[in-house]
């Protein structure tokens, strides 16, 4: 039985010799290639999660108003980043495809024109946001008691957001060529600097005065800027394919149309996801303080697992695009199957941790018995959700790497923006399951996304998309 299981993990089972269109790596090589791209992306996400928690703890020491001032800026920030993140998905897919085709001139043209688009879009957007920040934050729900602090913090963040947007675009190109290590190193250095500067500027040190929440804003702005310049340097010196000396800055109609087609679909997907999550969180918030506190802890826990699966998604997108560029759809599918197998492995580990250690985990987070008991129960649902969450991220990563974003947008509209809010309302309120219902809805949501993305992967339609 064990030999049969290990045989299914091998490249000869995944891609039989009769179906090969050319040479393939050995089993050891193909798993190593996949993991080499996935693990830096995973570590980047985990590091960001850790540093965010540390920064929140430092700001939280200043009081509830300071914490609220930082928190209220998060929603406008997410909205402003939606545009560049959508374009970044397009850049990753196109760069990966051009690398596979070995068209390095066009590949670098895609990066340069993506950066120009980012600058042209974000300069006016951020100028307007900077000038009208107070009414924007008031609309987002900021209270009079901390609006001045929020504006002081937010203005520095908006300045830094210009560099962050360019950094997202640079990172997208590096993912496309499979160089996630450069992204991890840049973010690691930037986030460590952020924590050190936050501590120094928030509380003061020696001759440096305590700036409070403004200090946190300056630290964030500085870290965004440093990460951007480190990524610029990495492309200039550390990557053998991306180069500022190749490609054209002049806009090309074919490149722009590809970015528009893929990026527009990605924008739709993210818009539907933001709407669905807003409606979902709003319903959970109405369940009461205990339910909301429990939900917040559980969402932070599942986010940790999410970054492991997201690393696999990035790797799948990169190798899918490169393989299709090489006219090797067989290899593209093989990399997808490799991702599925690794996803199942980490899901088993996630299940064991969430299910077996649920009481121990909540001992660490809370002393409130009601939250502890409810949270331990919810973690059982989290354990089961780890499987579809990982699988749907791997499948959607393959589809996005192939440029099949319009299909991802369509099922996101149905599942996230329409189905999940409805089933959440029914389970939470109509049928009276409370927070349990919200997490059953999340489990169903992830399962449906796995079905839709997995079915598309198996049809092979994505292998024939031209970008």
Quickly list its features:
mainly alpha; 17 helices; 0% strand; MATE_fam; antiport; cell membrane; transmembrane helix; xenobiotic transmembrane transporter activity
User: Any idea what the shape is?
Assistant: globular
Distance between the termini: 43 Å
Number of domains: 2
| Arithmetic mean pLDDT | 90
Q: Outline the biggest β-sheet.
A: none
Helix content: over 70%
Total number of β-strand segments?
0
What structural category characterises the helix and strand content?
A: mainly alpha
- Quaternary status of these chains? single chain
Order of SSEs:
HHHHHHHHHHHHHHHHH
User: What Rg is obtained from the alpha carbons, in whole angstroms?
Assistant: 23 Å
How much of the sequence is in beta strands?
A: under 5%
Family: Belongs to the multi antimicrobial extrusion (MATE) (TC 2.A.66.1) family.
Subcellular location: Cell membrane
Membrane topology: Multi-pass membrane protein
Pfam family, one: MatE
